[in-house]
Amino acid sequence: MSTNTPKLLDIVALTIDLPEYNLLRGQVGTVVELLANGAAFEVEFSDACGGLCLRNGQTYESVGLSSEQVMVLHFEPVSPNSVPAMVTA
Fold first, then answer.
1. pLDDT at 3 over 70
2. What is the pLDDT of residues 19-66, one digit of tens each?
3. Is the pTM of this model over 0.90?
4. How far apart, in Å, are the Cα atoms of 21 and each of 18, 25, 55, 61, 88?
């Protein structure tokens, strides 16, 4: 699985503008549901800001998107020495 394939509860950013929803490229949301066997995702956009402001965490848009329309955000560095573990039966 690609590191850019969104999973449930991943934080993602839009890679395109969606003017029909008043959303701009770069806006950040949370994957709240996997659709079409993981080929699409319901992404919720809210005014929450991690407790750093006085917003109330209300959802202002929830949109079904494809993986081409979002990028997964990563908050920790990937170790250059890390090698994916091989799973054997």
1. no
2. 999 999 999 999 999 999 989 999 999 986 655 666 677 889 999 999
3. no
4. 6, 12, 20, 7, 45
Report the amino acid identity of residue 13. Answer: A
The whole-angstrom distance between residue 30's C-alpha and the CA centroid of its chain comes to 5
**The two structure tokens encoding residue 28:** 């950040």
Written as one letter, the residue type at 31 is V
CA distance 73 to 75: 7
* Six-digit token string for 89: 């039966």
Strand partners, 44: 30, 62
- Identify whether the C-beta of residue 72 lies closer than 8 Å to the C-beta of residue 3: yes
Sheet containing 28-35: which strands, arranged edge to edge? Answer: 59-66, 40-46, 28-35, 11-14, 70-72
| Residue in this structure with the two tokens 């750093």, named with its chain if needed | 52
